[in-house]
């Protein structure tokens, strides 16, 4: 059976590697253990181990969740040009975008799971077995689209790798519709996640029609920013091949996305500042603080400034095509969007709370540990998947080569 | 495991139930180690419970609570009274901000002392600014109330006709009953807190830890109220959301909510909106009332008014 062979060879590939590979895995395992110890104490004692309280009832976990959904959605960033416009240089790397999407969705789902107060009752969310509140609850929709997106990408990637492994051409009739479907699906996961906040009339900070478009624009920046750096690392450390031209093209698309993101941001600031209603208070908390509570002000400005600098770096062709400035830009975007979709989205939405009270939230050690655990699991999943994919696509791991080797022996 | 199998055989099950049970039995085995019984783990949604289920759950909970708290509890499943829609009136001009209602509510409804949960939150507001949450202080601490320059606005669940929390819940663990009370099935809630984000009144509270009834400062243990309702004041598990239920355990028996009874100045009124002779109907007819955040179209059944 070829499929068993495929799984067996994939498993073997994952176990083989140089000392850098092993050290990287060891580091991830250590981090998972350290983070896991925090998570276990949360499991035992409840979410009281976090610094969330009734006024700020979603925080670090859900912020990370939102960011990860964005990264996952960004796989389309690469699928669209590659398959719709048949743009060759990117085509071969689409698969790695999808691997990133799979890893990011796993992380997003884990961030929801650790935020649940009663995880043992999670089966209530399984369609037909539990009682999913459709069509009313956006959270119910979100769980459906995220799981579908996960299954879809997993199917596409496994199918592609398996056909490469068999040294066969893929079946276009099967694959192309799935790929095309993955585009609206990617849009939908981030849109539904935005609607989750957007639909809450009680929270004026999120109750803006620009929220979903802004989510998409920022995802088009953060996802590729991760990929830009990953591709360079893979190019250095494995037989992975990608042309410079493709990297620069991705950076160019990011510049446009960042422009739209900044424009949306400016529009929101204008609306709030000029109309100067009571709702301005949340922006005030974010950018100047209320009284002595200036905890997130530094983060807010860092996010805006970093995003703007990165926009310039990616807009100007000279800095875009220079690897030093390109990488600086990617890191700045990553940090900028991570703050924007995390702490700068969640805490001002809840502060001041619906009764006008201020609770200053900072993540607890347990929250940081749990987050580190999930990030490490995500990196681990991505590393292992990428290891297999690189071997199959670039290092001649396929059934023919294996047969040849066997005959020689 | 064999015990679960035997039980499955004995039960007359529909196909859907069979699939449900089959899928859940394996998980139930794992659950055994996690501190909740398999009966609780497998318990169905409130609206799908048979009379038999209700009897078993009642018995199970009463035994559980007796074991844990050392006294006999009664867990009622009393349904809404027909032709009843509860409404609440609060006279802002009378309220003196003494917070007696807050603590009467804590005692009546078995609210967690540590971490502290208050279903009623009394806000102190400046007289010159009117009802405005941006100038409200929840944590006022005065030797004497009322303060001359301030008035007081107690806020609890507004029992909306159009409740955003119910819409938000991903698993239908919270809903509006026929008598207008928005309730939570603590055994079905998964603790995602989407309802808390959705509530414009801060009326929903999360049990961040297992509720404790010992005051962390004085070490005094508070006495639990053993007259409980399944959807109301029964002791709560950890990691779920609870909220004011207009004292469902009392009001469905024809009594007033605890906060109405305790109020020393008679600022709190309660009654049946469908009964034209009720006190609350009288207030709506003869006084000028206001509701909080009317622009959100939540349509509260909690009316504030100025009697004088």
The structural class of chain A is: mainly alpha
Measured between the Cα atoms of the first and last residue of chain B, the distance is 67 Å
CATH-defined fold name of the largest domain in chain B: Alpha-Beta Plaits
Using only CA atoms, what is the Rg of chain A?
22 Å
Count of alpha and pi helical runs of chain B: 10
Q: Compute the number of helices of chain A.
A: 17
Describe this protein with a few key phrases.
heterodimer, A: about 400 residues, mainly alpha, about 75% helix, B: about 300 residues, 12 strands, about 30% helix, globular, disordered N terminus
What are the SSEs and their pairings?
The complex is a heterodimer of chains A (409) and B (308).
Chain A: H1 2-15, H2 19-45, H3 60-73, H4 75-84, H5 88-91, H6 94-115, H7 138-166, H8 172-198, H9 211-237, H10 244-275, H11 280-287, H12 297-315, H13 317-320, H14 323-341, H15 343-350, H16 365-394, H17 399-408
Chain B: H1 2-10, H2 15-31, H3 38-42, H4 51-69, E1 74-76, E2 86-91, H5 100-108, E3 121-126, E4 150-155, H6 164-168, E5 174-176, E6 182-184, H7 194-198, E7 204-206, E8 227-229, E9 241-243, H8 248-251, H9 258-262, E10 268-272, H10 279-286, E11 289-290, E12 302-305
Parallel strand pairs in B: 1-8, 2-12
Antiparallel strand pairs in B: 2-10, 3-4, 5-6, 7-9, 11-12
